[in-house]
């Protein structure tokens, strides 16, 4: 019997377990997935929890209900990977050999990387919404907050779901309007990028919304520290931005496991071939989702498209066939803009978010880079799709793993596309 081991039972790992379960049969192959957590979280729901749009029950389920019955689930902390010996060392000393390893350990926030961020004001006036605990604490704060200076801040790129901080700012505008207290709240969006998102088309579409909603923007802000005593964030150039409530996206990093194993880069992401999803260091190790260092968005849609392509490459690897260099960085994402509307963007390594229709060229029903209620409905419907189709490895009809250019309008001469995608 041969062993295929998946590290991480989050979005990417769970999808791979379900995809491969259809193709690799016992007793020839044993599929094992390892994760120390008890619950599976619908992470896009963290955005909605602070505004009481979703409840905890909407976004948390057990891990077991999404793992196929003949896939072995081991709930354990992983001490390290020994890639030269093809084995996993679990906490407590147990060792697990593998013939093929898939790393899907994700990314998480590291507020300790910024001086003062996790200081005396943490979860008092300084919050994140990239963790369940942070999102829930922020919900409780917003229920009682009486207004002041709200700063929505990104520490550095890359981050999971690059549009989420913008969505938070837009939803905050809508939230305070509905509470009849928008005039009591000054919202400032602070980013290390030189624009609201990236350039050129996506930034154009989003910056006019910031202006329209009276949300200030501070760009090129490289944070040095959080001053808890004076309630200010300070950048390396000395610029100071005061806050009464700071909603920050801390540095995102890969799992410490990869540092312990000597397999990660400076941020603990695994160097990965961006087209095949094979690790650059070990031919029988593959990486997908937020754990890799490929220049694509760290988002659920990317993991979904990667999983479909990686499944075929795993089968090719098993049969000694050349891997397909097929993954093109495809991502699509709904961007909540408040007031029951949303934008939709669709892009890849070489094409920036542009106007057009999705998924059917010229027909839609969804429009790209245009606000609409239909896009908002698509965003909310995605939760059902996630729990009932995506995790179970079911193909979403009419949505291809690689990006289709049909029905999209872009000017190849005016885009610096590689810069754009590398910043996402």
The portion of residues forming beta strands comes to 25-35%
Q: What is the CATH class of the largest domain?
A: Alpha Beta
Biggest sheet features: 5 strands, parallel
Rounded mean pLDDT score: 93
Secondary-structure map:
Elements: E1 2-7, H1 11-21, E2 29-34, E3 39-41, H2 56-59, E4 60-62, E5 72-74, E6 78-82, E7 87-90, E8 95-97, E9 100-103, E10 107-109, E11 126-127, H3 132-144, E12 148-154, H4 164-178, E13 185-190, H5 201-212, E14 216-218, E15 223-227, E16 232-235, E17 240-242, E18 245-249, E19 252-254, H6 256-260, E20 285-287, H7 300-318, E21 331-338, E22 341-347, E23 355-360, E24 364-368, H8 373-390, E25 408-409, H9 417-423
Parallel strand pairs: 1-2, 1-9, 2-5, 9-20, 11-18, 12-13, 12-18, 13-14
Antiparallel strand pairs: 3-4, 6-7, 7-8, 10-19, 15-16, 16-17, 21-22, 23-24, 23-25
Helix pairs in contact: 1-7
Task: Give keywords.
FAD/NAD(P)-binding domain, 9 helices, disordered C terminus, 424 residues, 26% strand, alpha/beta
Question: How would you portray this structure in words?
Answer:
It is a single chain. The protein is α/β, with parallel strands linked by helices and 424 residues long. It is built from nine helices and 25 strands. 25% of the residues lie in helices and 26% in strands. The protein folds into three domains: 2-106 and 255-318, FAD/NAD(P)-binding domain, CATH 3.50.50.60; 110-251, FAD/NAD(P)-binding domain (3-Layer(bba) Sandwich); 331-423, no CATH class.
């Amino acid at each position: 019997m041969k062993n295929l081991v998946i590290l991480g039972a989050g979005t990417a790992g769970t999808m791979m377990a379900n995809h491969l379960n259809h193709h690799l049969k016992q007793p020839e192959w044993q599929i094992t997935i390892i994760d120390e957590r008890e619950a599976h979280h619908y992470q896009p729901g963290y955005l909605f929890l602070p505004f009481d749009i979703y409840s905890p029950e909407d976004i948390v389920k057990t891990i077991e209900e999404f793992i196929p019955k003949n896939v072995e689930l081991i709930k354990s902390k992983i001490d390290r990977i020994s890639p030269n010996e093809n084995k996993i060392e679990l906490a407590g000393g147990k060792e697990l050999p593998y013939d093929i390893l898939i790393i899907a350990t994700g990314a998480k926030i590291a507020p300790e990387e910024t001086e003062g961020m996790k200081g005396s004001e943490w979860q008092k006036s300084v919050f994140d919404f990239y963790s369940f605990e942070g999102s829930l604490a922020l919900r409780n704060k917003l229920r009682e907050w009486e207004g002041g200076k709200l700063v929505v801040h990104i520490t550095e790129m890359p981050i999971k779901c690059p549009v989420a901080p913008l969505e938070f700012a837009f939803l905050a505008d809508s939230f305070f309007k509905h509470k009849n207290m928008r005039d009591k709240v000054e919202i400032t969006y602070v980013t290390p990028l030189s624009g609201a998102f990236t350039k050129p088309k996506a930034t154009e579409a989003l910056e006019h919304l910031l202006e329209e909603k009276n949300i200030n923007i501070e760009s090129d802000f490289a944070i040095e520290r959080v001053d808890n005593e004076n309630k200010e964030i300070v950048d390396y150039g000395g610029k100071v931005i005061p806050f009464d409530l700071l909603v920050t996206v801390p540095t995102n990093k890969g799992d410490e496991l990869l540092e312990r194993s000597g397999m990660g880069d400076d941020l603990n992401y695994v160097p990965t071939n961006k087209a095949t999803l094979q690790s650059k260091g070990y031919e029988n190790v593959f990486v997908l989702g937020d754990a890799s260092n490929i220049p694509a968005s760290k988002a659920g849609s990317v993991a979904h498209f990667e999983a479909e392509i990686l499944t075929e490459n795993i089968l090719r690897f098993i049969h000694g066939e050349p891997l397909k260099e097929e993954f093109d960085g495809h991502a699509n994402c709904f961007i909540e803009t408040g007031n029951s509307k949303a934008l939709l963007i669709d892009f890849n390594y070489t094409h920036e978010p542009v106007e057009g229709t999705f998924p059917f060229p010229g027909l839609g029903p969804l429009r790209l880079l245009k606000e609409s209620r239909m896009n908002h409905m698509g965003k909310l419907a995605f939760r059902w799709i996630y729990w009932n189709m995506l995790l179970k490895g079911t193909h979403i009809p009419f949505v291809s793993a690689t990006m289709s250019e049909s029905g999209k309008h872009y000017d190849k001469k005016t885009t610096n596309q590689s810069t754009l995608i590398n910043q996402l």
